[in-house]
Amino acid sequence: RARLYDLHYRKPTPLVPLSDIVEIPGRLDWRGEERVPLDEAAVRAAAARARSEGFGAVAVSLLFSFLNPEHELRVEQIMREELDGVTISLSHRVAREWREYERTSSAVVEAYTAPVIRSYLERLQTEMERQGLGVPLHVMQSSGGVVTAESARERPLQTLLSGPVGGTMGLVALARSLERPNLIGIDMGGTSFDVSLVIAGKPDVSTETSLEGFPLLMPIANIHTIGAGGGSVAYGEVGGLRVGPESAGADPGPACYGRGGTRPTVTDANLVLGRIDPDTFAGGRMSLDSGAARTAVAALGEELGLGVPELAEGIVSVINAKMAQAIRTLTVEQGIEPRDFALVAFGGAGPMHAAFLARELGIGEVIVPPLAGAFSAWGMLETELRRDFTRPFFRRASDADLESLAAACAETAREGREALEAEGVPADVCRFEHSLDMRYEAQEYTLAIPIDSPDAPTGPGFVEEMTQRFNAAHDFRYGHSNPGAPVEFVSLRAAAFGDLGHAEPEELTALDGAPAQRTREVLFDGIDHPTAILSRDELGVGTELEGPLVVEEVTATTVVPPGSTLTVDRYGSLVIAIGKEG
After folding, report:
1. Distances 251 to 257, 279, 301 between C-alpha atoms, Å
2. Strand 574-577 relative to strand 565-568: parallel, antiparallel, unpaired?
């Protein structure tokens, strides 16, 4: 159970039951200056109640703590004196930002999740030590950086939603090595489909998100997830075909797994179409039951009046349409043209569907990196240690005190350097990125605009340059801008990075001779095509082949439809030039 102590804020929030909200006298004004001293006796009384009722976590949120955290810090000190082993989350540490509802929500979610995350990390470190593993443990953050396990225990909110972010950071590394700055990443596994972007070589990162309807203020890579994977179940509804979001999971799994599943899934459909080899699936470690897959597809086909091949292609087409719409959510709906990007496919099932998604979206090129099924794990090894800091800087741009902005930049850089040094990062491998949250006057939401020279943001033309960048970013993101309208600065953000080192990509050499291949019939657009089946290990640099092809490897299967062309680049990535047919 987590309790919210909403100090100073008089309007109850629906995040927790009203009975679990305790108001305590004390007041800071809009400048962060104390108007009414904190009632410490009331804080101790609240702590006594938390102790007697057995609460394991406390969230503290004060209205103007983002300007002056002294009251929140004093509340924490008293709580630690009165309570033993209780998690305490302070809103100014979680999100030092001016939007009190979102900041309160963020503090409550951290208080709710912190005990579980901290317990898990402690058990993991203990087990690593027991097994003699002396390497440091780093934990992925939603922002795309990593922190030590000790920091993750102190700031557990930053680890939420971080799982798929490894793939996003893999995209960043891939963009760097392949010199392709704009990439759309798709990660398709057994149950879900994740979409993320790299724009101009950097991850598309937002400053807020939501979890189960709760708004969260935190740096997070923009990832759109839908329930679409190899295990997505196909079914009939009102005479039409539906696929997902329900999944057969791993047990019983698709019908072809032979574990008792009887409902057709996307994996069953691909097997029926000939795009999966039942004998070499998962590197040959698992045999699939083609008969069970056909039986499951046939049963649904009989219900819908469709033959087995037609329904199998229908299942794949429906799931492809859903995934294409997920990509549009992060691109077209945000004013971004997907045709300006290459599509990077990873996860166990992503490369099987990528060429069809690219064709539907008008994308001309698909890239399948080596070990596509483990790409997200590789991405986690390619990232840096990262700590984020925020300071309020609410000014009309034309009236901004740039000397104060320079001082705030210097202060956040100092905090970042100290934080990284505490994580064990030498000062000479630290770097910093600053940005300003900006908006048109009277708007609610902001865009983060990078500051090129945070050491000297007081030079001539700084405000004009930032305003022009904001207008351009607004036009890129929303498809329109309003040059000449008053612009406001809202918050200063600083990201501190520490280089942990990473392996440089290895250029491969060409292999002698043509790759070995066998042939089987694969259905594309209602027509069976004799299709070459190849092992990825036998495709050397410079290989160029015309589709249709199926390329098999241990972690994934890549399908190249008719009319498309496959080449292998110098790093071993499969590059598919998308044709109009197939």
Report:
1. 9, 20, 24
2. antiparallel
Residue 509, SS3 per DSSP: coil
pLDDT tens digit string along 60-106? Answer: 999 999 999 999 999 999 999 999 889 999 999 999 988 889 999 99
Residue 150: burial class (beta carbons within 10 Å; 0-12, 13-18, 19+): middle
In sequence order, what are the beta bridge partners of 237?
240
Question: Which whole number is the average pLDDT over 424-451?
Answer: 90
Work out the average pLDDT over 527-553. Answer: 93
Question: How far apart are alpha carbons 258 and 550 in whole angstroms?
Answer: 24
Residue carrying structure tokens 């240690």: 385
The set of long-range contacts for 414-423, using a CB threshold of 8 Å and a minimum separation of 24, is: 415/389, 415/494, 415/496, 416/387, 416/389, 416/494, 416/495, 416/496, 417/496, 419/387, 419/496, 420/385, 420/387, 420/496, 420/497, 420/498, 423/147, 423/148, 423/151, 423/385, 423/387, 423/498
**What confidence tens digit (pLDDT) does each residue in 486-501 have?**
999 999 999 999 988 8
Residue 289, H or E segment: none
Nearest residue to 276 (alpha-carbon basis) of 87, 550, 574: 550
DSSP alpha helices (H): ranges in 179-226? none
Which residues, in sequence order, are CB contacts of 30 under 8 Å at separation 6+?
Answer: 64, 67
Task: Report yes or no: 525 and 582 within 8 Å, Cβ to Cβ.
Answer: yes
577 by Cβ neighbours in 10 Å (0-12 / 13-18 / 19+) ranks as: middle
> What secondary structure letter does DSSP report for 538?
G
| Helix (H) or strand (E) run with residue 331 in it | none
User: Which residue, chain included where needed, has tokens 């492809």?
Assistant: 320
Task: Specify the pTM.
Answer: 0.86
Is 316 within 8 Å of 526 (Cβ atoms)? no
Alpha-carbon 317 to chain mean position = 26
CB-CB contact of 176 with 153 (8 Å): no
